[in-house]
Specification:
Length: 132
């Protein structure tokens, strides 16, 4: 049984572990614990998935105003538990914390591009990024 819930205090090590166990760890600073700590400290909506032993097996980390937009920065599920609906449940729980009409926005990892259309996202043709 997987429990999905909002959490306010996720440890850096748990966060790092689930990133590494998913394909997302290839594109996140998993070897920089201080940076991971800042990512967690400044996220204002973190939803987790835990197995019956309490082990973190999934996370949805977002930055949001809760009313207009929510940037879902990280959606990670441990590889051995993917394709069981955990990612969908993390997205649904994230949406549950937003006001009606708020948009959930994300940039898909290459391995997950096809997934998001299957869970109700629409592709947007004009997203832009720029590094600091």
């Amino acid at each position: 049984m997987i429990q999905v819930a909002r959490e306010n205090a996720l440890s850096i090590e748990e966060f790092r572990t689930v990133l590494v166990e998913s394909t997302l760890g290839e594109r996140r600073p998993v070897e920089e614990p201080a940076r991971l700590g800042k990512m967690l400290a400044h996220a204002n909506l973190v939803v987790t998935a835990r197995d019956e032993s309490g082990r973190l097996v999934g996370v949805a980390r977002s930055l949001t105003d809760f009313a207009y937009c929510c940037y879902l920065s990280d959606l990670a599920v441990s590889r051995e538990l993917q394709k069981q609906g955990i990612g969908r449940r993390l997205i649904e729980e994230t949406l549950r914390h937003l006001e009606p009409g708020a948009k959930l926005i994300l940039l898909a990892a290459p391995a997950a591009v096809d997934y998001y259309a299957r869970v109700g996202f629409e592709k947007h043709p004009s997203a832009w990024t720029r590094g600091a």
